[in-house]
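Students often ask why inverse folding is considered easier than folding. One informal answer: many sequences map to the same fold, so there is more than one right answer. In these notes we will look at a single instance of the problem. The structure comes first.
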């Protein structure tokens, strides 16, 4: 079987590529930078260079002989890229597309509507699909590292609300299983971490992992927006993040499922393990 990973140099895509390599496959990757792909995977992958903003013939060439695709796209207009890939895939005879989506497709919160439109585009293409509707990623907590390192504090507008962040390895494990077994064709898999935790609880967990007290400080939506605009700029992404944090505070994002266990046969990785793996980022 030949697999193509789009988004291979990213957080989840790179883990899917590594899992495919570990399983004895030689995946193809569609990347914007050969250098980044080589740094991550050496000569264990076939590299196709292109940009989904303007793929031209590069995408068609990457699809030749491919059986299954793992697809990561991002942004308000991700539907455009999901459409381009899935229609080209169907024309090229690709049998299956696994799209990284979000649990928020079900709630309409944050980036949910972006991915809902992306899922529809994939459906319309006629290619067999699996949607990975993941909860918030544990790796989002890297965004807290600077204030924890410098001031021993995490500031958030999530109040006492809870969310069951999921470990990136669990997402990659589910995506790889979907791709390689084809057992989940036509399904939207809702996957979360093992338990919903408040940001205050996650702050304490990071504090324990680094052996230093870390304080949780509540801020308003307006303050959260102003801080987000500093690094993300004004626009749909900053709006989506504040929307998600508000929904966490209001208890609308505390879903926990047994999706990871059902699909991988093992329990999802808890947040304290993620924190222990990543202490260097918070010290
Ligand atoms: N964070 C969360 O809590 C959460 C929760 C649920 C769902 N999601 C979804 O997860 C996805 C993000 O996954 P991730 O964390 O793995 O992303 P990531 O680390 O930001 O990686 C994005 C990948 O896409 C590639 N890419 C971006 N634009 C491209 C283009 N025009 N052409 C070709 N490749 C392009 C990037 O390549 P370069 O290396 O060249 O930049 C990179 O490999 C988004 O769809 C997001 O909505 C996130």
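Output (designed amino acids):
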């Amino acid at each position: 079987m030949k697999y193509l990973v789009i988004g291979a140099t990213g957080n989840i895509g790179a883990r899917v590529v590594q899992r495919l390599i570990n399983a004895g496959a030689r995946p193809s990757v569609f990347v914007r930078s050969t250098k980044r792909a080589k740094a991550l995977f050496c000569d264990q992958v076939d590299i196709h260079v292109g940009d989904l903003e303007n793929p031209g013939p590069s995408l068609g060439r990457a699809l030749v002989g491919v059986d299954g695709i793992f697809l990561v796209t991002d942004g308000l207009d991700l539907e455009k890229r999901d459409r381009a890939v899935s229609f080209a895939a169907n024309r090229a005879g690709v049998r299956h597309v696994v799209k990284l989506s979000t649990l928020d497709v079900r709630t309409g919160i944050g980036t949910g509507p972006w991915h809902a439109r992306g899922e529809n585009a994939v459906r319309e293409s006629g290619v067999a699909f699996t949607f990975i509707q993941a909860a918030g990623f544990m790796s989002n907590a890297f965004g807290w590292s600077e204030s924890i390192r410098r001031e021993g504090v995490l500031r958030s507008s999530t109040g006492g609300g809870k969310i069951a962040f999921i470990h990136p390895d669990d997402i990659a494990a589910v995506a790889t299983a979907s791709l390689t077994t084809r057992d989940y064709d036509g399904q939207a898999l809702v996957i979360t971490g093992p338990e919903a935790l408040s940001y205050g609880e996650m702050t304490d967990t990071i504090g324990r992992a680094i052996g230093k007290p870390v304080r949780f400080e509540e801020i308003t939506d307006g303050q959260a927006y102003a801080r987000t605009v500093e690094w993300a700029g004004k626009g749909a992404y900053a709006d989506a993040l504040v929307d998600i944090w508000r929904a966490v505070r209001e208890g609308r994002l505390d879903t926990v499922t047994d999706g990871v266990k059902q699909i991988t046969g093992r329990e999802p990785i808890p947040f304290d393990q993620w924190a222990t793996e990543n202490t260097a980022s918070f010290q």
